[in-house]
């Protein structure tokens, strides 16, 4: 079956194809992930060539045929191109990490509107907010994990159910969840969580205000979330976009 699909889309990446065309990965509001060709995108006359560029938020028309691997993009207009992200190297790296997570973990042709809205929202925040990009990304990462079915569990100790975890030295087990200081030695510890790291995870997860956190703790939190995801999804190899920060 084929259909003319009019939807919103975020451009995840693009590669050259043939003499003048591009192949792009799009995350669309109505159809989820799609691969599409933009014919003639690299010819000087093409208007779509510069519009269909990674990070851009577009209104698109796609000739969509599910039996085909590559769909045909026939029209694209900019909704937002997030100019402040593109002029700030750190924002850009984290925004690319959002695109990379989506491209690596979301299968094609499966609509996922909540995630689509979450991605638009995080890109808008990177573009407009002065919060540290790592904190914004950490919040998104936890949301993303929950959306794909791997919630990062920190509400209570897996073993004894203790909910007051703020004071102690804690540990995390990738398969079980968080462990309080009394229970942690009886289980495999994937990594340790000190009070500051716990406070950060807790703020990220519950939308609290993150105050006076060391940059190293922010990097550490993202690093552990990557390891958590690698543990659960074996073909996920980590985020290339963030490698320069480590
Ligand atoms: Zn416990």
Short description:
The chain is of the alpha+beta class and 246 residues long. 35% of the residues lie in helices and 24% in strands. The protein has helices spanning 48-51, 83-86, 89-105, 113-128, 133-147, 195-205, 215-232; strands at 2-17, 21-28, 32-38, 57-65, 71-80, 170-173, 177-179, 191-193.
Features:
elongated; 246 residues; 7 helices; five-stranded mixed barrel; single chain; alpha+beta; OB fold (Dihydrolipoamide Acetyltransferase, E2P)
List the helices and strands and how they pair.
Blueprint: E1 2-17, E2 21-28, E3 32-38, H1 48-51, E4 57-65, E5 71-80, H2 83-86, H3 89-105, H4 113-128, H5 133-147, E6 170-173, E7 177-179, E8 191-193, H6 195-205, H7 215-232
The chain binds zinc ion.
Helix content: 25-40%
Q: What is the end-to-end distance?
A: 46 Å
The CATH superfamily name of the largest domain is: Recombination protein O, C-terminal domain
Oligomeric status: single chain
User: Unreliable runs, pLDDT <50, ≥5 residues?
Assistant: none
- Give the name of the CATH architecture of the largest domain: Up-down Bundle
CATH class of the largest domain: Mainly Alpha
Distinct small molecules:
zinc ion
- Number of helical regions: 7
Output mean pLDDT.
93
Largest sheet entry: 5 strands, mixed, barrel
Counting helices, strands and paired strands, the structural category is alpha+beta
CATH topology of the largest domain: de novo design (two linked rop proteins)
How are strands sequenced across the largest beta sheet?
Answer: 1-2-3-5-4
Tally of discrete structural domains = 2
Strand content: 15-25%
Q: Give the topology string: H per helix, E per strand.
A: EEEHEEHHHHEEEHH
């Amino acid at each position: 079956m084929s259909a003319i699909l009019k939807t919103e889309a975020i451009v995840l990446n693009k590669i050259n194809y043939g003499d003048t065309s591009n192949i792009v990965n799009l995350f669309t509001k109505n159809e989820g992930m799609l691969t599409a060709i933009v014919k003639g995108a690299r010819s000087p006359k093409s208007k779509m060539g510069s519009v269909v560029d990674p990070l851009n938020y577009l209104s698109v028309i796609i000739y969509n045929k599910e039996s085909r691997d590559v769909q045909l993009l026939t029209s694209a207009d900019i909704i937002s191109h997030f100019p402040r992200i593109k002029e700030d190297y750190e924002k850009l790296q984290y925004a690319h990490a959002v695109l990379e997570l989506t491209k690596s973990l979301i299968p094609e042709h499966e609509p996922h509107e909540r995630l689509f809205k979450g991605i638009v929202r995080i890109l808008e925040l990177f573009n407009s907010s002065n919060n540290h990009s790592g904190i914004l990304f950490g919040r998104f990462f936890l949301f993303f994990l929950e959306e794909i079915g791997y919630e990062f569990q920190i509400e209570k100790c897996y073993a004894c159910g203790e909910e007051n975890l703020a004071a102690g030295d804690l540990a995390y087990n990738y398969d079980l969840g968080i462990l309080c200081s009394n229970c942690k030695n009886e289980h495999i510890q994937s990594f340790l969580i000190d009070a500051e790291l716990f406070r950060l995870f807790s703020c990220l997860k519950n939308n609290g205000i993150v105050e006076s956190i060391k940059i190293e703790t922010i990097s550490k939190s993202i690093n552990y979330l990557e390891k958590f995801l690698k543990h659960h999804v074996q073909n996920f190899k980590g985020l290339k976009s963030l490698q320069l920060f480590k």
